Amino acid sequence: MYALIDFKGKQYKAEKGAVLKVDHIDAEPGSSLNIDSVLMLAGQDKPVIGSPYVAGAKVSATVESHGKDKKIIVFKYKPKKDYRRKMGHRQQYSIIKIGDITGV
């Protein structure tokens, strides 16, 4: 059984025991969270599609760890104008582990 969830503006496929890399969450590692925004449940007789969310469906997860991605370089320039700007950015993320998926 799996579920398509909407979490922090992005969509993920959540299966029991799956590990997802999501945008940073302000929660301690080891804490649990419940995700109510389930777009679709599948794996039973036939898929259940919500409009926009499936009523009564819930996905529970635990926060495993936090981290930062690789650095990306943002370089802007305008030719022949001596304009150059170089910046770096490291996106913060959280690793969550999907626990239980409860349906209707």
Structural commentary:
By secondary structure, this protein is an all-beta fold. The protein is 0% helix and 62% strand. The chain contains no helices and 10 strands. The strands form 3 sheets. It has a 4-stranded antiparallel sheet, with no helix packed on it. Strands 3-10-7-4 form a 4-stranded antiparallel sheet, with no helix packed on it. The model has no long low-confidence stretch (mean pLDDT 94).
- What's the number of structural domains? 1
- Summed up, the helix count is 0
Distance between the termini: 13 Å
Described by the principal axes of the CA atoms, the overall outline is elongated
- Give a count of the beta strands, DSSP E runs of length 2 or more: 10
Determine Rg (CA atoms, Å).
Answer: 19 Å
Q: N-to-C SSE series?
A: EEEEEEEEEE
Topology record:
Blueprint: E1 2-7, E2 10-15, E3 19-23, E4 32-35, E5 38-42, E6 48-49, E7 58-68, E8 72-78, E9 83-89, E10 92-102
